[in-house]
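Review form for a predicted model. The reviewer records the input and the model, then writes brief findings.
Reviewer: anonymous (R2)
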Amino acid sequence: MMPFSLKKSVLVSACAVLVGVTSSASAISLMQAYQAALKNDPLHRGAKAEQQAGTQYEVMGRSGLLPQVQYSYSTSKNKGETITPTVLGAFRIQDLDYTSLTRNVSIRQTLYSMDAYARFEQGVMQTQLSDVQFDARSKDLILRVTNAYMDAKFAEDQFALYSAQRDAYAEQRRANERMFQKGEGTKTDMLETEAKLDVAEAVLLESVDNMQTARNTLAGMLGQDVKQLDRLRDGVSVSGLLQGSLEDWIGTAEKNSQEIVAAQLNVDLAEKEIDKAKAGHMPRLDLSATYNRGKSESIVTQTQDNSTRSIGVQLVIPIYSGGYTNAAYKQAVAHKDKAISDLDATKNKTLVELKKQFGLVRSSQSKIEAFEKSVASATLLVEATKQSIKGGIRINLDLLNAEQALVNAKKDLAQARYSYLMSFLKLKAVAGVVSATDLQTVAGFFSAE
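Model under review:
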């Protein structure tokens, strides 16, 4: 019967073969992933639809300043009777049966209306706000795609590391068995390696699940299956991406941050809401013109066909509205105060996040250099430990620990490099200037080979 540990090895090997087979089915680069997400990501499609709806705010606001034209038509069948006294004291009854018809065309043009003009300005600002929000979501798509892509790639890296670790433990287990059979090894060495191998196989199985989950997450954004991704190239220098001082980035964010611009537009919209409330006390002047064509509109004119044309102005002066106007004004002022507070909070939040990402980009360079040295040292330690074991200086457990340290160092290095690239994009996103060009720069650190 096959030993339990061997069964697990076969199972894990099958998983590895399965992953390898599916990986060769198709490949996608970071830029290809972004282009696919532009077409298929549900959140981005929703943002586009919302932005298209937002363009109509300006049209709706402007409509109040343009002529309002109406046409009405009515017809009715009338039945009745007239009773007329005669000279002899009797009454003459006459049945009435006629059809009345009315056509009317009216035009109204606003000459002065503080409310209508405030609504027009609000419509313009709401359309601008919609554009800014869509711009922010478009930039967020760059971050979401890159983050999902790197998560999937990091999951692949972990799978490769844990596969190599499992293979190393399996080889060490076989070496322990050979030495034990020759009387040069111990049962303890075999048990130590077996324990490490069991854990490594469990971790490897978990990494397969994590990799599939990360790929599924990315696939949901792209609208297509993800089987293979470009790898982060080794030995590529990540220095030089960060340009400018923190003060320069703060100045850029104050001018370009979509969140700050949107918050400022909300303040401006609140100001126009105050103007609308003030309009409740202001007069309104309209120019109106009508054309009316009527036939048999009443009993008196049942045999007449009339047409009238009129043109004039209408002045409406509000006097009292039950306190509504004053209440609306106070409410609008309070909403503006809140909008100003929200703007200050947004500026503070943006500044904090900007400093955070700027610091991460700058410190990540040192972290990457440190982890590169750590990987080099851990690699040397594994080789030195193997030689020391042969000389009887080190024991089996020392080698197992050294190999575990090497895996951890490689994992930390990969994570640091991904984090550095993400922090670079996030810094530009917080400043409001991230673009597809920056994504192309990051994509240059990946390779299909």
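Findings: The chain has one domain: 32-77+98-447.
Further findings: Residues 244 and 358 are 10 Å apart (CA to CA).
Recommendation: see findings above.
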